[in-house]
Amino acid sequence: MIGQAALPTPELVFEPLLPELALVAFAIAGLLYEALAKRSEPLVHLAIGLVGVALAAATSLWLWNWDGAATVLGGTVAADRFAVLARLLLLTVAALGLLLGYQYFARSGDEQKGEFTPLLLFATSGMTLIVAAADLIVTFLALEILSLSLYVLTGLTGRRAANEAAMKYFLLGAFSSAFFLYGVAMAYGATGTTKIGAMALALTGGGETQALALLGFALLAVGFGFKVSAAPFHMWTPDVYQGAPTPVVAFMSAATKIAAFGALIRVLDVAFQALAWDWAPIVWVLAAASIVLGSILAIAQTNVKRMLAYSSIAHAGFILTGLTAPGSVGIRSAVFYLVAYAAMTVGAFGTVMLVSGRGEERTRISDYAGLARTNPIAAALMTLFLLSLAGIPPTAGFIAKVNVFSAAIDAGYWGLVLIGVLLSVAAAFFYLRVIVLMYMQEPEEVSATGIAEGDGAVAGDAAVLAVPAAATLLLGVFPGVIIGVIEKASVLRW
Amino acid sequence: MNKLLTLTTFLPLLGAVMVLAGGRALKDDAARWLALGVSLATFIVSLVILGRFDPSAREPFQMVEQAQWVESIGLTYTLGVDGVSIWMILLTTFLFPVSILASWTVTADVRRFMAAMLVLETAVIGTFVALDLLLFFLFFEALLVPMYLLIGGWGGRRRIYAAIKFFLFTMAGSAFLLLAILFLYSKGGAVSFRYDVLLDVAGGLPATTARWLFLAFFVAFAVKVPLVPLHTWLPDAHTEAPTAGSVLLAALLLKVGTYGLIRFNLVLFPEASKYFATFVGVIAVIGIIYGAVNALIQTDIKRLVAYSSISHLGFVVLGVFAFTQQGVTGGVLQMVNHGLATGALFLLVGMVYERTHTRDLDQMGGLASVMPWLMGAFLFTAFASAGLPGLNGFVGEFLVIVGTFAVNHWFGALAATAVVLAAIYLLWSYQRMAFGPVREEHRLLPDVSLREVVVLAPVLALLLVFGVAPSLLTDRIDPSVEAVIARVAPEGQLTDVGDAGSRAIAFEEFP
């Protein structure tokens, strides 16, 4: 008998996975409701989704004071405050995504999509899992959970553009997953483990396997670069953002970044911390390329969603700029940037949704002409989010930029910061162009659909955006509120 | 109560919130009066600050307010005034009610216009009182947005082009400023952005680093001033901006640039300032002459005044980088005087434009017989701007030239030629506007209204007061300037003979 001793089973501690369990349970509940109910009510779906998210958030909050082991389930899931903070952020974005989606489908008059809520919850569960993953295999699993859900969400409306976007996203995403998996294999070959903590220990000693590990890291970086839409792995972003339903874009532009960066931070600052000098140049190049390509290509766009897509590439670059600084300085700046970016990008896409009326019409930049006259609330909101994206004080975007730039300068990369500040000026140009149109030009003609449909509905829809708007302002004026929390959460346990 | 600086800074912002919160319920006229009331209240608060300001105090900054803002990144909320910034604050709080009253003729989106004006006031005052570099930068960037909206929303035909150009030029400059501030901050161990802390940090830097940082600061402020060749945004922005926008741009926003040079470049990097003094002097002189020559050939009266600004601001920079008591004091004096005189010129040009609907000098003529009072005011202001003794423009320019002569004869001599050119372009433009045959369509134009008298009278009065009694200004400026010079050029104090302010009046005693 080779017997019992050969297969050690880890102690099962499930508490740190409660948020994911809650999300999955409610996602399944949503699916069952859709399947069993005679006529599914969108409001019930929304309620199921929100309760699931709230429960996940409550359990995450409870984990803030977790005093058990640093990692559970055989060292594959981390139970630290970093994971808690990232989860809470993701759940907030998910809640906003659910609300926006509810409005979107109520307004667009499309056939109701009962799959929306369950899919969004599944995607969120993948995201909340990936930020806690302490084993590259779990990271990969979570990556697939969130990706597959997002592929379907992208094509949810069945419109031509949406289908095309979903197909592109899927093909390129599958490709990048392969790279990621190959990277995991390399890293395993170099260190003999896929556990992030054990990898860190294996690499500290030095030795000849470091080159192999670095190759593994480069391949992992391709996978992450794809998910955070960093150049040169950004190709899918504009098409997907343009084609996908706007609330899905609002959700995934913010949440995917948080999730993928959360996982990347663990890989950079735990697993490969010993190789910081070697990976920093890679991050440097990714950051610079993203900032330059994103900011410059955005100038040429005529569609708001495409423009925001390129802007999201540039912002990935800014976050990477912060991560060039190893350790908690870089983590803090990147996490703050993620919070700020989540607020402003959800807000910006939410406003795009407000303006676009039924379906995906009115997303050309020229449609924004005279918006201040036809819909002053939407125009004011858009201005706030665009100013924040451009990094103008007193908005969250400004403090976020100062944070990542000062982290990078601290680490000695002032050349990268120079690129960042100069390209911020180029970026200001295309954000301003929209403001110019909204405030300084006359509307072309008020279309029959869309915003002219009565102020009441619009004001109600805009209420959801009060959350990101308040966050954008508050983080700009009193960033101390969240920085204190981030400081407590920027220590990774392994 | 020692929160006066906070009060004067944020009172206008509060007003802006009130104007916007009023929504459609707030009638246009109510919005105008509200904005005027708030800006007047701000002016009164700043007068109290002036009253409490003690020119003989030993500490460099007075009424200092300090609080942690974002502790983790070392951003503090530190405010204070010295003899330079106090005048900038007063100039700001004085010109805002004037500009708001001058904007009574704005009829489109009045609420938004007034709100933008008030937000701008907060941002401008903020740059002058901030004693934390990041806080300063925050205000410095924030003032772009309302100004951009004012130019782009209520400007002339090419307003959008001008607004974007203004924004991008300034933001490109400030990109370097941010980089330099962050660099300085990291050299100090990333503890604080406070002025006094970074002052010590800057003192310990190697010369080469300090010079690079000097250049980064310099580019940001040179765009704002503007110094040739970074000036090209200015004629467009001035020409296209609405009257109030032009006034505030010329009188205040350009001063943010020269103020920054004095407050940051000179004091933080004294060695680098001296190293680059000749270089800065050369481009200042080029600016002085280039601006004056360009003003000569303009037919658009607003563009003419815009180019004259470039020339006058060149004087300020030249004086400041002479590092002599007269030069720097003259520069600061010129900042105040240019603000008043050019502000008044833009107000008058705006009033003329509202009547004739043209800014083209060739389309005017004989206006003196149609509106004698308005043209009289114009002539008075033109004299002040050209530096006629007895009016305010003279003292500053004179001190700058004297202060520069002590250091570099060539600069002094070349700058002096611009005084002659200024007299030519101002009087020539006045002649084309006021004399000659009246055009048929201008025959029935009204002279100044009561509102316009209220707008102009206080500004013109100050032109005279500060011309006759510049010591009102210099008494407070001098001690702070001495402190600056003590840092940048301790030997420069030796070339100073007596009290600059008093000598400015008794200039005939000058050897």
Please give the structural blueprint:
The complex is a heterodimer of chains A (494) and B (511).
Chain A: H1 18-36, H2 42-63, E1 71-72, E2 77-78, H3 81-108, H4 116-130, H5 136-154, H6 160-191, H7 196-204, H8 210-227, H9 236-243, H10 246-271, H11 276-299, H12 304-323, H13 328-356, H14 371-374, H15 376-390, H16 396-410, H17 414-440, H18 455-464, H19 466-477, H20 480-489
Antiparallel strand pairs in A: 1-2
Chain B: H1 4-21, H2 28-52, E1 62-70, E2 75-81, H3 85-102, H4 110-129, H5 133-142, H6 144-154, H7 159-187, H8 195-203, H9 207-224, H10 233-240, H11 243-268, H12 270-275, H13 277-297, H14 301-320, H15 325-356, H16 367-370, H17 372-386, H18 392-405, H19 409-434, H20 450-468, H21 471-488, H22 500-505
Helix pairs in contact in B: 1-2, 1-4, 2-3, 2-4, 3-4, 3-11, 3-15, 3-20, 4-5, 4-6, 5-7, 6-7, 7-9, 7-10, 9-11, 10-11, 10-14, 11-14, 11-15, 11-21, 13-14, 13-19, 14-15, 14-18, 14-19, 15-17, 15-18, 15-20, 15-21, 17-19, 17-20, 18-19, 18-20
Description:
The complex is a heterodimer of chains A (494) and B (511). By secondary structure, chain A is mainly α. Chain A is 73% helix and 1% strand. Chain A is built from 20 helices and two strands. A two-stranded antiparallel sheet of chain A has the order 1-2. In chain A, strand 1 and strand 2 form a beta hairpin. In chain A, helix 3 packs antiparallel against helix 4 and helix 3 packs across helix 20. Chain A is globular. Chain B has 511 residues and is mainly alpha-helical. Chain B has a two-stranded antiparallel ribbon. In chain B, a hairpin with a 4-residue loop joins strand 1 and strand 2. In chain B, helix 3 runs antiparallel to helix 11, helix 3 packs antiparallel against helix 20 and helix 14 packs antiparallel against helix 19. The radius of gyration of chain B is 22 Å and the shape is globular. The N and C termini of chain B lie far apart (47 Å). The C terminus of chain B is likely disordered. Classes of the chains: A mainly alpha (494), B mainly alpha (511).
